[in-house]
Design a protein that fits this description.
The chain is mainly α and 132 residues long. It has helices at 53-58, 70-89, 109-125; strands at 17-18, 24-25, 42-43, 67-68. It has two domains: 1-68, no CATH class; 70-126. Helix 2 (70-89) runs antiparallel to helix 3 (109-125). The radius of gyration is 22 Å and the shape is elongated. This is Protein Hikeshi.
Length: 132
């Protein structure tokens, strides 16, 4: 039975994420963020075919299959890190500007910057480190 070609991976392109739509309702795994009423589980059957590169070049993936590469994820992550750091920095006060407030917790911006740099380093080493 032939399926729908979503895309491919090769030695030159060793990784890709393919978005699929039109899934059938059925038994699905638990959602990583817990039970969500608006999300119904779905099932997809995925197959892998090993083809010669010249045959692969003749095949055309369906246009509705959106491919998201690790580079796109890395760009998103970088923008997210920048946004968090910029947002947190916008509340920065010098020690002279601080007034005692027992209901407020202050975090040194150096801690946020250290986390930011560590996260960037870990993403550069392994973009999927956060999955473990």
């Amino acid at each position: 039975m032939l399926g729908t070609l979503l895309g491919f991976i090769t030695n030159d392109k060793p990784s890709a994420i393919f978005k699929i739509s039109g899934l059938k309702a059925g038994e699905g795994g638990a959602h990583p963020f817990g039970v969500m009423a608006s999300v119904s589980p779905s099932v997809a059957q995925v197959g892998v075919s090993v083809e010669a590169l010249d045959q692969l070049a003749q095949q055309i993936p369906v246009s509705s299959a959106a491919v998201s590469t690790v580079d796109t994820f890395m760009q998103f992550t970088q923008k997210m890190l920048d946004s968090l750091y910029n947002f947190a920095s916008s509340f920065a006060l010098s020690q002279a500007q601080m007034t005692p407030n027992p209901t407020e917790t202050f975090i040194p911006s150096s801690c946020i910057l250290k986390w930011y740099e560590n996260f960037q380093r870990r993403m550069a080493q392994n973009p999927n480190f956060w999955k473990s």
